[in-house]
From TrEMBL:
<keyword id="KW-0238">DNA-binding</keyword>
<protein>
    <submittedName>
        <fullName>Substrate-binding domain-containing protein</fullName>
    </submittedName>
</protein>
<dbReference type="Pfam" id="PF00392">
    <property type="entry name" value="GntR"/>
</dbReference>
<dbReference type="GO" id="GO:0000976">
    <property type="term" value="F:transcription cis-regulatory region binding"/>
</dbReference>
<dbReference type="GO" id="GO:0003700">
    <property type="term" value="F:DNA-binding transcription factor activity"/>
</dbReference>
<keyword id="KW-0678">Repressor</keyword>
<dbReference type="InterPro" id="IPR036388">
    <property type="entry name" value="WH-like_DNA-bd_sf"/>
</dbReference>
<dbReference type="InterPro" id="IPR036390">
    <property type="entry name" value="WH_DNA-bd_sf"/>
</dbReference>
<dbReference type="InterPro" id="IPR046335">
    <property type="entry name" value="LacI/GalR-like_sensor"/>
</dbReference>
<dbReference type="Pfam" id="PF13377">
    <property type="entry name" value="Peripla_BP_3"/>
</dbReference>
<dbReference type="InterPro" id="IPR028082">
    <property type="entry name" value="Peripla_BP_I"/>
</dbReference>
<dbReference type="InterPro" id="IPR000524">
    <property type="entry name" value="Tscrpt_reg_HTH_GntR"/>
</dbReference>
<keyword id="KW-0805">Transcription regulation</keyword>
<keyword id="KW-0804">Transcription</keyword>
<feature type="domain" description="HTH gntR-type">
    <location>
        <begin position="13"/>
        <end position="79"/>
    </location>
</feature>
């Protein structure tokens, strides 16, 4: 928003001086960084000409009470002016999934409330694409970076450590484990322990784990696995790797031999999934094997609410509060930007326990009768 300068001594013009005093009194009541109405709105509200409004605004600018930011508006001075001028970059994989959509909308709303702009950087799920995107984001010198890691390498961790020394960055939902990098997410250990304990309480003893093959790269995934194992231990159950399904996040059809696992006489009667990515594929395999959920197989999971809405089964699960996670991440990033304090922050929020229709007692026999079909819900 450009403020037009009119070189005129306002002290001799009572009309201009009156508008200046009114605007000055109002602006002094605003917190630093707060956006003022547009020049046109001010003209309409005060019933004066554009020249009068612009003259008053020029004096207020010279006085250091307001600042004009191109394409953004007029702001009460003293706030994060430089941050307003530069965007916040959000780095995500280039996939149309409920999780990514929710992150985008939640971050946009939280940033807009602070008069900050959002810029996307999308990367492919191929080697080095994510690393190159993160490097490019730091090179653009944004106000800050919001980032959900997906494919982590030692080199990427090093880039994050170095970049966080000069650019505010907060990880969302997934954590690389680098202590120097700020993170906001879910209390994954406790969420996973509770979700798995639900299966144990139903009487299951043969419980498998569903996880992506890159789980070791993310601290939050490791915490989910640890929570799963803790629930088994509390229930006096030994974990058997043979019950587990390990899938490829880039192609979920590539997994351990699930058909063989589900068809065996000593198959698992329940699964805990560290996220919902593989569940649609699991449901197809379950149907192919002639099993019923939850009569023959029970499932629990930790993920965001949006992903569960797209599943054919009302799942027993622990939902991640992703909107709250994004909002808090933006809040922390904003604090880092205006304070120039880049010390890492780490905050964990509680998941929300939801009862569905995917958990029941283990079947009395290892397999369903031939020809049985998948029961997606009990209406």
């Amino acid at each position: 928003m450009k403020i037009v300068s009119i070189h005129k001594d306002m002290s001799s013009e009572p009309k201009y001086r009156h508008i200046y005093e009114l605007l000055r009194e109002r602006i002094l009541q605003l917190p630093p960084g707060e956006r003022l109405e547009t020049v046109r709105s001010l003209q309409k509200n005060y019933g004066v000409s554009l020249a009068t409004v612009n003259s008053a605004l020029r004096l207020l600018t010279e006085e250091g009470l307001i600042e004009s930011v191109r394409k953004q508006g007029i702001f009460r001075a003293g706030g994060p002016g430089e941050a307003v001028r530069r965007p916040v970059i959000l780095i995500l994989p280039g996939r149309d999934e409920p999780l990514f959509r929710r992150i985008i909308f939640s971050c946009y709303e939280a940033l807009e409330a602070r008069n900050m702009r959002l810029q996307f950087m999308i990367h492919k799920l191929v080697p080095n694409a994510e690393l190159e995107t993160v490097i490019r984001a730091f090179d653009e010198k944004p106000a800050g970076i919001l980032y959900m890691p997906t494919q982590v390498s030692a080199r990427l961790k090093q880039v994050l450590r170095e970049g966080c020394g000069h650019t505010p960055l907060v990880q969302l939902n997934r954590e690389t484990g680098a202590a120097e990098v700020s993170f906001v997410g879910t209390r994954c250990h406790e969420a996973s322990r509770k979700a798995t304990a639900r299966l144990v309480e139903c009487g299951h003893r043969r419980i498998g784990l569903i996880m992506p093959k890159d789980s070791s790269s993310f601290l939050d995934q490791q915490e989910r696995i640890a929570g799963f194992l803790a629930a088994l231990k509390q229930g006096g159950i030994s974990h058997r790797n043979a019950y587990d399904i390990i899938f490829d996040p880039s192609d979920r059809r590539l997994a351990s031999d699930v058909i063989e696992l589900l068809s065996g006489e000593e198959r698992p009667t329940a699964f805990f999934a560290t996220n919902s990515s593989y569940l649609p594929e699991l449901f197809r395999k379950v149907k192919f094997c002639g099993l019923k959920i939850p009569d023959d197989l029970s499932v629990t999971c930790v993920d965001i609410a949006d992903t569960f809405r797209e599943l054919p089964v009302p799942l027993d699960r622990l939902e991640q509060p992703i909107a709250e996670i994004c909002g808090r991440a933006v809040e922390l990033l904003y604090e880092m930007i205006i304070s120039h304090d880049l010390r890492p922050r780490r905050e964990l929020l509680d998941g929300i326990s939801c009862i569905g229709n995917s958990c029941g007692p283990p079947p009395r026999t290892g397999m369903s009768l031939p020809g049985s079909t998948l029961c997606l819900s009990k209406q």
